[in-house]
Write a structure and sequence with these properties.
- This protein has a four-stranded parallel beta sheet with strand order 2-1-3-4, with helices on both faces.
- The protein has a single domain, classed as Rossmann fold (3-Layer(aba) Sandwich), CATH 3.40.50.
- It is α/β, with parallel strands linked by helices.
- The longest helix has 25 residues.
- It binds 4-nitrophenyl phosphate.
Length: 160
């Protein structure tokens, strides 16, 4: 069985493409790319079709990670396609929860940083879009910490 993950933020051009790139790198390095499939989406349709923000791409590139996503909007029909739907903040978690067609699908939605035991419950990956360059480095750091723990969780949970 393939385990499918979707990272979700607002625009799908900064945070969730970064989480997708970081997790893809971790999964590839663990030799698990046949077992785990990774994608990302936005709760808004504002940037559909766009590459990740150039600031996100450049920051990731400096860590040897290529961001290859094209923005898409997360729709109700997408819920059954994933086992894990990981929101970057509470606003996106709430948007996904109200979009979910039933409680079974709703239960797939979690906050990404809740997988990081060093983050207080409810922690968000802050939106870097309107801020300075350090915001993009912070997103990479936070996504890396959380995705390492997410991968450990999935490996335990699914025995891989
Ligand atoms: P993201 O960041 O949700 O991490 O992709 C944003 C991108 C664009 C906008 C807001 C946040 N925007 O307002 O267009």
């Amino acid at each position: 069985m393939t385990i499918r993950i979707c990272f979700v933020c607002l625009g799908n051009i900064c945070r969730s493409p970064t989480a997708e790139g970081v997790m893809t790198d971790l999964v590839n390095r663990a030799g698990l790319s046949d077992e785990i499939e990774i994608s990302s989406a936005g709760t808004s349709a504002w940037h559909v079709g766009e590459k990740a923000d150039s600031r996100s791409r450049e920051a990731a590139e400096r860590r040897g990670i290529e961001l290859t996503s094209r923005a898409s909007q997360f729709r109700q029909k997408h819920f059954p396609e994933f086992e894990y739907i990981l929101a970057m903040d509470m606003d996106n978690l709430k948007a996904l929860s109200s979009l979910a067609p039933n409680n079974g699908e709703r239960a797939k939605v979690k906050l990404l940083r809740d997988f990081d035991p060093d983050s207080p419950p409810g922690s968000r990956v802050p939106d870097p879009y309107y801020g300075g360059p350090t915001g993009f480095e912070d997103v990479l750091d936070l996504c890396t910490k959380a995705c390492e723990q997410l991968l450990a969780h999935i490996r335990r949970e699914h025995g891989i």
